[in-house]
Design goal:
Number of helices: 10
CATH superfamily of the largest domain: Vaccinia Virus protein VP39
Order of helices and strands: EEEEEEHEHEHHEHEHEHEEHHH
Distance between the termini: 53 Å
Bound molecules: S-adenosylmethionine
Strand order of the largest sheet: 9-8-7-10-11-13-12
Strand content: 25-35%
Low-confidence stretches: none
Number of strands: 13
Oligomer: single chain
Helix content: 25-40%
CATH topology of the largest domain: Rossmann fold
Mean pLDDT: 97
CATH class of the largest domain: Alpha Beta
CATH architecture of the largest domain: 3-Layer(aba) Sandwich
Largest sheet: 7 strands, mixed
Length: about 280
């Protein structure tokens, strides 16, 4: 008998991975959590039937969500991470000795517990002494913060269920307020390819643009996400990731990365015409 994990990417498109062994199934207060083992992608975990992280391609997402802002402003010391329960974003951040403090706000403790057990590859740095874990809603957490962080990373689920609030105007406005005067906001920005995802990414772009003077979008190829073409948002009060990137400083750190390099950094902001058009439409 063959066992396959199948995810519905649109009404007419499905994506499947052959499963060697189901490892865990649980229902938290917020969502259903599943972990599987597969030959092609190693262990992978899903929330409400949507792919979150696989051992094989997580490096692409985590490199791009962390190293792009860190190479733009090497002086970042105080970071807020929202979502990110698998720990991959925190793992990459803790590689910078210059970072002094990381608050990570994940709504669902069960995600962290499950990832500690089945995805130690990403969860391995959650006990770093600079990391402070809060199990609460990121939307509520930022409401009370002002002029506090150099960088906010929103590593959320899609804009429905518990993640919905992390794509609202209220949330982006509060992130603006929670950032210092040279602060940067990076978020997972959905995909431009299939219509439903493209609508979400346009909405997010439009809302972020209402608050931040610098507002760019960059891309990466993530094989297990819908269409494989994924976007990240870079919003900032001061720094432009293309003109302020400090290549020399970042390269002198000697960090070994499997995806990110300073050429990819610059190239990732070069967008296909159809994506530029979607963003222009959203910005009007
Ligand atoms: N890399 C993944 C992706 O884009 O598919 C996202 C990974 S991470 C596991 C997303 C996390 O965001 C989940 O663990 C989820 O519980 C958390 N999350 C969703 N809504 C949240 C909220 N309002 N506040 C804090 N965390 C939230």
């Amino acid at each position: 008998m063959e066992l396959w994990y199948t995810e519905q990417h649109t009404d007419n498109v499905r994506f499947s991975i052959k499963v060697d062994k189901p490892l865990y199934t649980g229902q938290s207060e917020f969502q259903r959590i599943d972990v599987f083992n597969s030959k092609e992608f190693g262990n992978f975990f899903t929330l409400d039937g949507l792919m979150m992280v696989t051992q094989k391609d997580e490096f692409i997402y985590h490199d791009m969500i962390v190293h792009v802002p860190m190479a733009t402003n090497p002086k970042i010391k105080n970071v807020l991470v929202i979502g990110a329960g698998d720990g991959g974003t925190v793992r990459e951040l803790t590689r910078y000795a210059t970072i002094e403090h990381i608050d990570m706000v994940e709504i669902d403790k069960m995600v962290v517990d499950v990832c500690r057990e089945y995805l130690p590859q990403t969860a391995c740095k959650l006990d770093d002494p600079r990391v402070h874990l809060y199990f609460e809603d990121g939307l509520k957490f930022v409401r009370t913060k002002e002029n506090t962080y150099d960088l906010i990373i929103v590593d959320s689920t899609d804009p429905f269920g518990p993640g919905e609030g992390l794509f609202t105007k209220e949330f982006y406005g509060n992130c603006y307020k929670a950032l210092k005067e040279d602060g940067i906001l990076v978020n997972q920005h959905e995909s431009p390819y299939y219509d439903e995802y493209a609508k979400s990414m346009q909405r997010a772009h439009k809302r972020i643009k209402e608050f931040f003077p610098i507002c760019r979008v960059y891309q990466a190829h993530i094989p297990t996400y819908p269409s494989g073409h994924w976007l990240f948002g870079f919003a900032s009060k001061k720094y432009d990731p293309l003109t302020d990137i400090d290549e020399k400083a970042w390269n002198s750190l000697g960090l070994k990365t499997k995806y990110y390099n300073t050429d990819i950094h610059k190239g990732s902001f070069a967008l296909p015409n159809y994506v530029k058009e979607l963003l222009a439409e959203a910005g009007e």
